[in-house]
Amino acid sequence: MIAFQSSALRKRPRPRVPVGVRIYAIGDIHGRADLLAQVLNRIDTDLAKRPVSRGIEVFLGDYIDRGPASREVLDQLAMRKPPHQSVFLKGNHETYIVDVVANPSLLDDWQRFGGFETLMSYGITPSLNTDAATQMQLAVAFGKVLPESHRRFLVNLRSSYTCGDFFFTHAGVRPGIPLDEQRDEDLLWIRDDFLFCEEDFSKIVVHGHSPVRAPDIRSNRINIDTGAYATGQLTCLILEDDRIDFI
Which fold has domain 2-98+147-246? Predict the structure, then answer.
């Protein structure tokens, strides 16, 4: 592993996680079950080679949509059992998948975010005709095939997680607002106001949501959304003591 090397980060004590803890943070998956399986295998191999008291996996949300295998992704995550300690955060894409069953009018919005690819992964072929009657039919059909294990997984997603000097969330935080007072809307959706802010957030924010070509390490945040569904690169960040690495 390597220590934080950014010149900006060297101006302050190096951020760290508690002794005996190793964090594996996984970026936006977006229906790439194949890449997720590879990352989970690499995590398991790393833990076997380098045992640690507490290995914690933090998934940053956006498990579904755009990619071809959203159902398979949720299957893998819902079945991730101890000894793995896993923290599952909510992404903005997860705001639709459960609500659309009760509110079919959301299908139009979900379609723009790649939701139809998710429907197809559950064996439903949506029509381009999205009138009210068709929306209702799709919502009813989807409600019948959405497994209870997936529903439980989705409704139990968290908005944020804190460990040591790091704050994990999907999109970012609203500058000027204490971390414990952040709104879910910002944690799931914020972009420019957060991305262009250079102020100290009190902890290093580890996030996804805004795709980058390679992990982006800044003085106040680390972006690990490397556009898996389009690039074939799903990033896993490792934090241990005051060091970082990627597998």
Answer: Purple Acid Phosphatase; chain A, domain 2 (3.60.21)
